[in-house]
Design a protein that fits this description.
- This protein has four helices and seven strands.
- A hairpin with a 5-residue loop joins strand 1 and strand 2.
- It is globular and about 45 Å long.
- The longest helix has 24 residues.
- 26% of the residues lie in helices and 37% in strands.
- It comes from Stenotrophomonas bentonitica.
């Protein structure tokens, strides 16, 4: 039998395609996004627009803070508390103001305290530096359960009145059904990139 025919037969039996005959399937990342993924992304975008509209109505100066920031993130959350334990979760979108690029995010909340009921709330994160924004969309952040975070008056200007300062370059507005909150109540919450939507 011809030597080249033997080599080709051996390669096929081993599951290796001979050179010049590619049988590999495209990587999953090259495939178009599913209908469900596109729908979830669009729902997150719609929620983002609604939350920003509510924030600007409650605190007009916030528009300047958001638009002049390095980036921002908007979350819509739902939480439930039963007796001494509770938890919640939500989805959000982070947007780089320099490039317009979106990063879809998730949040998971675990809280403790006596009570019963359900709550919904919206969050708008404002990142004053590119480094703070990049750190958020790559590593996420976790807010400790013991911190007391109250909104401050923005003495330096920039529209951050009514926002809670998380760190030197990170601020958060929280809105409940009754309006802009004076204290950040979502303690013990972790924020991280959503791999299923990015």
């Amino acid at each position: 039998m011809d030597r080249s025919l033997l080599v080709g037969t051996a390669l096929i039996l081993l599951g290796v395609a001979p050179l010049g005959c590619s049988t590999s399937t495209p990587a999953r990342s090259d495939a178009p996004p599913s209908t469900e993924k596109i729908e979830a992304q669009n729902q997150a975008r719609t929620a983002t627009a609604a939350v920003l509209s509510r924030l600007y109505a409650a605190q007009p100066g916030a528009r300047q803070a958001v638009e002049q920031s390095a980036g921002y993130a908007v979350f819509r959350s739902f939480g439930v508390k039963v007796l001494i334990a509770g938890g919640g979760g939500g989805h959000g979108v982070a947007i780089d103001n320099r490039s317009g690029r979106e990063t879809f995010m998730r949040m998971v909340e675990v809280q403790a305290g006596l009570g019963f009921g359900a709550k919904t709330f919206d969050l708008v994160w404002v990142f004053k530096t590119p480094e703070a924004y990049q750190d958020f969309i790559t590593r996420g952040i976790e807010i400790g359960g013991q911190a007391t975070l109250a909104a401050k008056v923005d003495k330096a200007g920039g529209g951050l009145t009514g926002a809670v300062q998380i760190s030197e370059n990170v601020w958060v507005y929280q809105m409940t059904e009754s309006g802009l909150a004076a204290e950040l109540t979502v303690k013990g919450t972790r924020y991280y990139p959503d791999k299923t939507l990015n």
